[in-house]
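Task 17 of the worksheet. Students: predict the tertiary structure of the chain below and write it out as structure tokens. Keep your answer in the requested format; marks are given for formatting as well as content.
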Amino acid sequence: ILAKQLSTLAPFVLVLENIHELSAERLEFINQLATIIPKLRGVGLFVTSRAKVPSAFKCYWLEPLTYQEVAALLETQAKNNLPQEGLEWVYAKSRGNPLFALEFWRYLSQQGYFWSDGSRWRWRVAPRDFVPPTVRAVLHEMVNTVAKDDVSKRVLEIRALLPDSLNEKVWMEVAGLEPPLFSNIQKRLENMGLVREGKFAHPLVTQIIREDIRAKERTLYAGRALVALEKAGLEPSATLIANANLEKCKTLQIYERLAEAAKAKNDLARAGHWLALAAEHCQGEKQFQFALGAATLLRHTDLARATQMAQLASSSPPHDEEAIF
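Model answer:
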């Protein structure tokens, strides 16, 4: 009946926004309508959704705004030029999401991180983990819609802790699930728009979930992840290693192994990164060796970190000044 009524209005396009908020029954009705619309001359159906749209639709993911587009959007709000440092900060946090960018602008300007002296806007660096309450609310709603049971929550939390370089097999292994159940949960995450191609659709989703993981689960998941990543030949993050709360000697062994693996790939900067972390987790002659090795490897790529390591080596026995120089 609705399709016939729409055909009498041609040319006509029916636009339905935020259909992710609808019940399963209404989504099925919209899907059925979408199968009929192409048969009607001069009639179109356009929908928007944060989640995956029904099968009858041709889906287009909106691409994030570029830095220039985010800058233009915020400067329109400010009615003046904004400091580049502040614009870069907002762009890095929002990753081109216009809703997030506008909410960051609103809260940062209200709290004086963007501030005007009457002639121009200035920038005061905001806390690194700051997220506007409105953005937090949107993300929590999306996460809570999916994480209605302990298993789904575990899958989400583990994905938030794992590095982007993971493969789905590692994710499934750390979650301790059989393929059918894991695949079903992953499909649900993708349908809700939380995950795309095995990764969270936005870094702020990762941040929000990480912040809510309890310490006991964080340690448990991180320990499992280190085992699975080593088995798969993938590199963990320093944060993941720290979250595992391992004994100091075990942590040093991991840093040494990762440094050697990076050297084997001729990735000297990465090897220096791991040696520097090792130096900060030990004392005495080992600290000297690690710090000196890190300073040597990093001197052409990260002079500040190399200098820091050289200073650490100089304060550690055996005080080999000639080697440090």
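Marker's comment: The CA atoms of residues 14 and 73 lie 28 Å apart. The chain has a mean pLDDT of 89.
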